[in-house]
Amino acid sequence: MSEQKTANAEQSEAWNGATGVKWVRYQDRLDTMLAPFAVALFSAANLSHSDKTLDIGCGCGITTLEAAKLVGTQGRAHGIDLSAPMTGRARERATALGSHATFDVADASARDYSADPFDHLISRFGVMFFDDPVGAFKNLRRALKPTGRLTFVCWRSMPENSWLAAPTRAALPLLPPQPKGDPFAPGPFAFADQNRVTGILSDAGFNNVSFTPYDTPVILGRSVEEALDQAMQIGPLARLLAEHDDATKKRVSDVVAAELAKFLTPQGVSLAGATWIVQATA
Ligand SMILES: C[S@@+](CC[C@H](N)C(=O)[O-])C[C@H]1O[C@@H](n2cnc3c(N)ncnc32)[C@H](O)[C@@H]1O
Questions:
Q1: Which residues span the domain enclosing 203?
Q2: Fewest Cβ atoms nearer than 10 Å: which of 22, 146, 160, 269?
Q3: CA-to-CA distance for 108 and 249, rounded, in angstroms?
Q4: pLDDT value at position 181?
């Protein structure tokens, strides 16, 4: 008998394992680094007071907490995420702030919210990880009222995002040749291609799909040391290095530090960030 793979099993393992634990550990820094993308998301979403809002792949919860402020206690701000450690952090923050935001640890591609649907689905970098994106977005559309709207922010291509591309490119000559990966595999760049995302959302039943590019520098760290630590711990370079020994990591760390030093500004290590703000109606 062939073994049945559970949907999103690899992502669940990563976000409940080392990756999720690192996101909790670096939560403050990541929230600061990614703050401009939350501002862009909320500016596009234009949530109304008393909206019911679902934050997909909410992680440590900063955007759900912000949604809770915007919709007020007449509204609802609910976050869903696969990761128990990250959602745990989100709940702690909600309690500490006295926020009415709520959280579910669940797979957004399967959790059924159709009995109590939302006015708005939002996400900051939380929708690019589904094994079956059309199936996932069909399920998410059932979580929306017929008048509902979807707004998310996702990364454009890796070359356009030098904050991730530059450290990886510096490291590659020191590592064995990498197999050419599937550009559409679940991961940060899976939604870079506008035509693909339009197809996914249309096949899932969404209407009026639109894309607005949003580009802003990403401050990877206040110093080269902080930026280096971030690049070595989280993201594509960290994944490439996971199986390598300490000597290799040290050699890589030296060349990546030299590369990052080129981008040091008075604000910190600043490289290009490039995203789509994607919107659609139910
Ligand atoms: C790049 S992180 C972004 C976290 C958060 N939105 C933020 O901006 O800080 C991606 C998040 O998506 C979550 N995720 C991935 N696949 C998911 C799924 N199938 N259902 C729910 N959450 C998922 C991960 O656990 C992770 O927290």
A1: 9-158+180-219+273-281
A2: 146
A3: 35
A4: 83
